[in-house]
Amino acid sequence: MSYYFTNDESLKSEVKKISVKINNLPFSFYTDNGVFSKKGLDFGTRTLLESLTDIKGNVLDIGCGYGPIGIYIAKTFKTVVDMVDINKRSLDLSLKNAKLNDRFSHAYLLSGSSGIPLIDYAIFVAKSILCENGDPLACLNCLTCLRIEENNYADLIVIDGSKEKIKKQHIDEIERTFVKTALENKGKMIYILHLVENATPIALNSLLKFLEEPNQNVYAILTTYNENKVLPTILSRTQILHLSAIPRNDVINNAINNGVSNEDAELLSSIYNDDVNLKDFSLSETYKKIKNLLLEFLEELGGNKAYASFVLSKKIVSQIRSYEQVSVFIDLLLDFIYNLMLKKIKQEIILKSYVKIINGLEMAIPNPQQTFLKILEAKRSIDVNINIPLLFDHLLYII
Ligand SMILES: [Zn+2]
User: pTM of the entire structure?
Assistant: First the structure.
């Protein structure tokens, strides 16, 4: 049985195009089997969208499906929307629909865990932008698609960070090439930086400046296996597409079969998409320390909020000392709030071993979606030079 929230590649594909009006604005969407609400815009989504009056700041579309909510919000409120979905077909569709509704972003970050062929996917996005038939994604058969496949298209530059460090010279070279007009008749120029986490700090600086001055004809496609290592300033300038090959429940089951406890498998499946790395990290002292501190904080938060503040500002600040540790702490914290959101919309939670803590949090965090977005925003603002006590003060204020 396939559900829209599972990643069933074997399900027969039957793409349909639907046209809908939302608040009298026309939108077209491609939908497919295995995607939620495939026959048309469902009543709930329509009601939600038509009741939105204003949205400021960044938006996170969890379970974006074929993308109607994210695309509507991006187009209507001119804001940045992160579309997150575990279903590869949904991601293809949301990309298609972005193009169809003229919301193709000029900078994408494809984020996925190891094992996902991100560079192939990045090249597919490039083909989709340039394809002669583009209906709306790449046909893979036209001369342009074939030339890209053969690495033979003049206005596409691919820098592969898995083979060499991405250096400032690479970025400068791209800039120098792309200030000129495009060589090919399409007029569009694309660069792919595969594994942007493997760029030197100086290269990242140049990249940031380049991303800040978007050129109508230039498209950036970045990829990463480790979003925690990508500068938040880069994250905030790109449309992030999360690609997850393995459904989270499978990661959890694989990890449990591999000897990890249910508790750790559930918790760490929010960070790792493969049971091997998950198991390694579950055995580390760093993880045990962060987990204990986080659980103590959350347990107190459900009961004595003042004491929870104390735990956070004294114990946690004195023991969590690096940028990496802060990132893990925040990711795990976000996952608890994510589960709280699931509970609120009466969906099955993932952190089943922590049901007591999650129940306890319901009173303390009455609007988990709001809290989630604020923490996500705080996470975006952190970098290697982070002032940790200040960040935790801010977190306390948010929660
Ligand atoms: Zn083509």
Answer: 0.50
